[in-house]
Structures are given as C-alpha cells and as structure tokens.
Amino acid sequence: MEQRIALVTGANRGIGLEVCRQLVRLGIRVVLTARREDKGRAAVEELAAEGLNVSFLPLDVTSEKDRLRILEDITREFGRLDILINNAGISIDFNVPALEVSFDEVIRPTIETNLYGPLHLTQLFVPLMRKHDYGRIVNVSSGLGSFSKITSGRIAYRLSKVGLNAMTKVFADELKDTNILVNVMTPGWVRTNLGGVKAERSTEQGADTIIWLATLPDDGPRGRFFRDRQDFPW
Ligand SMILES: NC(=O)c1ccc[n+]([C@@H]2O[C@H](COP(=O)([O-])OP(=O)(O)OC[C@H]3O[C@@H](n4cnc5c(N)ncnc54)[C@H](OP(=O)(O)O)[C@@H]3O)[C@@H](O)[C@H]2O)c1
C-alpha cells in the first residue's frame, strides 16, 4: 500500500501540532500547515528534534490564494491527499452578549476561519481524494457547537461550529457511495492557547479521536459527531 498523505490545518501549535506528531508516528506522511511561515517552520523543527519528519506548507485557511496554491503543491508533489484534518480555529467572542458582538471584528472572521475555511478545503480536495477512492476528513468542532446544548453567549464560535457540524452531515451524505468518510468531533476542554491553562485535558487526549477518525477502516462511520470515540449529541 502507498504511504498515506495527510494535511493538517492550524498545526503550528496546540491540538493540530499533536495530531501531526501522532500521524507521523503511525507512518503517515504529514503536511503540517500554518498561516505564519516562521511559526510553521518552528513547529517542524520541534518535531524534527523528536526524530519526526514532516513537510511544511503555508496555509491561511481564509485565503483563497493560499488554498489554491496548496492544492497545486500537494497535487504536484504527491498526486494525492488521503487525510484532511480541518483543525484551524479561533475563538474570540468571550463574554460579549450576542446583541453587542461586532460583526466585522468577531463574527465574520470566526465564521470565515472555522466554517468557510473547512468548507473551501473540502470542496477543493474531495476531487483529488475521489481519484484514489480514499479519503478521511476530520472536522474539529466543539461541544459549544452541539445544537441541543446551546445557551447564551459565544454566538460567533457557536454558529461556526454548528455550521461545521451541519457541513459534515451534508458532505458525508453526498459522499456516501465513495470511500471518503467525513466526520466531526469535539476534543473536550484542552490545555492550549484557545482552551487556556485551566483546561482539564492534554493535547494528547484532545488529539486521540482525531487520529482514530483519520485512520478509520473503509467500513467505518461517516457523518457522525464524536467525543472520546463515542457518539456525541448534535
Ligand atoms: N482547546 C480546547 O479546549 C478546544 C475545545 C473545543 C474545540 N477546540 C477546537 O480545536 C481546534 C484547535 O484548537 P487549539 O485548542 O489547538 O487552539 P490553538 O492552540 O489556539 O491553535 C489554533 C491553531 O489554529 C491556527 N489558526 C487560526 N486561524 C487560522 C487561519 N486563518 N489559518 C490557519 N490557521 C489558523 C492558529 O495559528 P496561529 O498560531 O497563527 O494563531 C493555531 O495554530 C480549533 O478548531 C478549536 O476550535 C479546542
């Protein structure tokens, strides 16, 4: 079997970096991406110091130019993409009531990053996955995107993750006759820049379900929402 190729977004730190680490350990060829080249290269060096080799490509998921360029680069270099981890995310609407949240400074950038980024990348890479009839797409959502648990606050982040969940179901259903499995997960509350130092989980724990979904067998689940490898309420 040919070596699998994986692309991870927002992978210079936090859960994304840990996902790269674990995928390489499984023998998968990893393209670590980051919006800042210096930060991305520093992350590549961090992994290299552990004896883990990954490639780096710059990718701001909100930039159409970056997205088109990375599709071109991956197609030219590998001719395939097997695993897409839509991990990059921002959470910038703490403690501001929905009535007062700035559309331009908070809602638009949050949805462009957390929802439209994954949406565009899925549209771009599924045709390449189809050529080899293999794909595993993992969307990193949040418990705050669980529609059944919605309460006040965090409107931008919640909308972006509810949308990501809905997007997952739509793509999974449209791809049901293929070997491309699209799933969404929540990592729980994880100690990262986004989660903060008080969070209860390590990045290893946060990454576990992502790795499981990225390496599902052909008869694995599709179009489902998971936490800790178990179904999680929509
Ligand atoms: N930590 C938690 O408790 C928690 C809980 C639920 C869900 N999640 C989800 O887990 C995912 C990873 O978050 P994390 O906790 O690892 O947070 P993190 O440490 O803040 O990492 C977020 C990553 O996303 C990158 N990013 C942000 N905007 C980007 C863009 N436009 N293009 C490309 N990369 C971009 C950041 O890059 P820069 O370094 O350049 O900013 C960083 O690498 C997110 O989708 C988040 O919503 C986290």
From TrEMBL:
Broad class of enzyme this protein falls into:
oxidoreductase
- Taken from the record, one Pfam family name reads adh_short
Keywords from UniProt, A to Z, are: NADP, Oxidoreductase
Can you tell which superkingdom this protein's organism belongs to? Answer: Bacteria
Task: Return the EC number.
Answer: 1.1.1.184, 1.1.1.189, 1.1.1.197
GO MF assignments: 15-hydroxyprostaglandin dehydrogenase (NADP+) activity; carbonyl reductase (NADPH) activity; prostaglandin E2 9-reductase activity
**Protein family:** Belongs to the short-chain dehydrogenases/reductases (SDR) family.
What name is this protein filed under? Carbonyl reductase [NADPH] 1 (Nadph-dependent carbonylreductase 1) (Prostaglandin-e(2) 9-reductase)
Q: Which organism is it from?
A: Stigmatella aurantiaca (strain DW4/3-1)
Q: What is the lineage of its organism?
A: Bacteria, Pseudomonadati, Myxococcota, Myxococcia, Myxococcales
